[in-house]
Design a protein that fits this description.
By secondary structure, this protein is α/β, with parallel strands linked by helices. It contains ten helices and eight strands. The protein has a single domain (about 5-220), classed as P-loop containing nucleotide triphosphate hydrolases (Rossmann fold, 3-Layer(aba) Sandwich), CATH 3.40.50.300. Strands 2-6-1-7-8 form a five-stranded parallel β-sheet, sandwiched between helices. Strands 3-4-5 form a three-stranded antiparallel β-sheet, covered by helices on one side. α1 (about 15-25) packs across α9, α2 (about 35-45) packs across α4 (about 90-100) and α7 (about 150-160) packs across α8. The structure holds 2'-deoxycytidine-5'-monophosphate.
């Protein structure tokens, strides 16, 4: 298969991470979780006394942390200033602050550049998951996918991940999810938005295996349509 750049966007709870990792692993591609990068910079700001609700303070600090992502889909890593951030970026404190930090244009410019550098360096291609990959980060991606699911399904999946499954947990998760989606979709700089040329996959009624199979098929088709693939086939 020729090297392919795949952008997978969509709100949380659509199975984006599990799908992206599995597709990359199955096809021998690199994998980048861009949400983890925004979470890592948020964690760094919280640790370094930057008031995350003060956009000017966040902007002034945006260039300071060194954010590093390991792109093996079987064992992705994320660190800030050399410190493993994979555990702390999933805490409630980071989750509730990440929308504010990721809305700051200076943060987006910084992280977008990192993402482009990582994608350009991936030897066999990469699956990049996020919110603005198809629209802003990699507008020339070979394939753009937009994953969706109903708010009920997304909240249930997130609660399952958090291992709390009672009705109150579900209602709280649903509220938090809707609030974060609204913030991510409503921000001025590269909001969560489906690219015009993205393929929409509604995962509400599909199992994870079915979503993975569907995306793998789309990636293989996109790879086969690349000019290099056509040249190789003609030789
Ligand atoms: O995918 P996630 O829930 O880990 O993402 C965390 C936050 O990061 C999300 O609320 C919005 C932000 N984000 C973003 O603004 N742009 C991206 N490409 C990825 C994530």
């Amino acid at each position: 298969m020729s090297a392919v750049i795949v952008a997978i966007d969509g709100p949380s709870g659509t199975g984006k991470s599990s799908t992206s990792k599995a597709v990359a692993a199955q096809l021998g591609l690199s994998y980048l979780d861009t949400g983890a990068q925004y979470r890592a910079i948020t964690w760094w700001m919280l640790n370094n006394g930057v008031p995350v609700d003060d956009a000017a303070a966040v902007a002034a600090a945006a260039e300071r942390p060194v954010i590093t992502s390991g792109t093996d889909p079987q064992a992705p890593t994320i660190s800030a200033d050399g410190e493993d951030a994979s555990g702390p970026i999933r805490t409630q404190e980071v989750t509730s602050s990440v929308s504010a930090v990721s809305a700051v244009p200076e943060v987006r410019t910084r992280i977008t550049q990192l993402q482009r550098d990582i994608a350009a360096a991936a030897p066999r291609g990469i699956v990049v998951e996020g919110r603005d990959i198809g629209t802003t980060v990699l507008p020339d991606a070979d394939l753009k996918i937009f994953l969706t699911a109903s708010p009920e399904v997304r909240a249930a999946r997130r609660s399952g991940e958090l291992k709390g499954k009672d009705a109150a947990d579900l209602a709280t998760t649903r509220e938090a999810l809707i609030k974060r989606d609204a913030a991510d979709s409503g921000r001025k700089t590269s909001p969560l938005k489906q690219a015009e040329d993205a393929v929409e996959v509604d995962t509400s009624e599909l199992s994870l295996e079915q979503v993975i199979e569907c995306v793998v098929t789309l990636v293989e088709k996109a790879a086969a349509q690349k000019p290099e693939a056509a040249e190789q086939a003609a030789q």
